[in-house]
Amino acid sequence: MKISLPIVKRCFGALVLLSALSACSVLKTTPVAPPPPTSKAQEVVRAQTTTLTKIGNVTANVIGSPMDVERAIQHKADAAGAHYYLILLISDTIMPGRWYSEAILYK
C-alpha cells in the first residue's frame, strides 16, 4: 500500500493544529483563593491574584543571592502596605552577585 504525499501533508497539518490548540489549555489559569492576610506581605502565584486589587509595582536591585532580592521585595511590599505580592522576575545582572527583581503589589 502506497501513501501519497498530499495525505501525509494533510495528516501532519492536522496533527500540528491539534497540538497547537492543546497547548492553549496549558496557559489557562484556574482561579485559586489567596491565603488570609497576615501582618507581613505574602508571595502569591498568578492564579491567586484574580480577586485581589493591584496597588502598584516595585523593583529591587541587591548584592547577594536570589533569596536576598526576594527579601527586599517583601520589605518593600510591607512598607507599601500590601498584603500580597507577585514576583514577576528575578534575574542576575551583568555584575556578579547583583540580583534584580520586579513584583506587583496587591491588597
Average residue pLDDT: 89
Cα(first) to Cα(last) distance is 66 Å
What's the number of structural domains? 1
The CATH fourth-level homologous superfamily: Flavin-binding protein dodecin
Structural class: alpha+beta
Q: How many whole angstroms does the radius of gyration measure?
A: 22 Å
Strand content range: 25-35%
Number of strands: 4
Main beta sheet: 4 strands, mixed
What is the correct CATH architecture? 2-Layer Sandwich
H/E topology pattern: HEEHEE
- The percentage helix is 25-40%
Q: Just give the CATH class.
A: Alpha Beta
List segments where confidence is low: pLDDT < 50 over at least 5 consecutive residues: none
Specify the number of helices: 2
CATH topology: Dodecin subunit-like
Layout: helices, strands, pairs:
Elements: H1 5-24, E1 42-43, E2 54-63, H2 66-80, E3 84-92, E4 98-106
Parallel strand pairs: 1-3
Antiparallel strand pairs: 2-4, 3-4
Summary keywords:
Dodecin subunit-like, four-stranded mixed beta sheet, 2 helices, alpha+beta, Dodecin-like, YdgH-like_sf, 107 residues, elongated
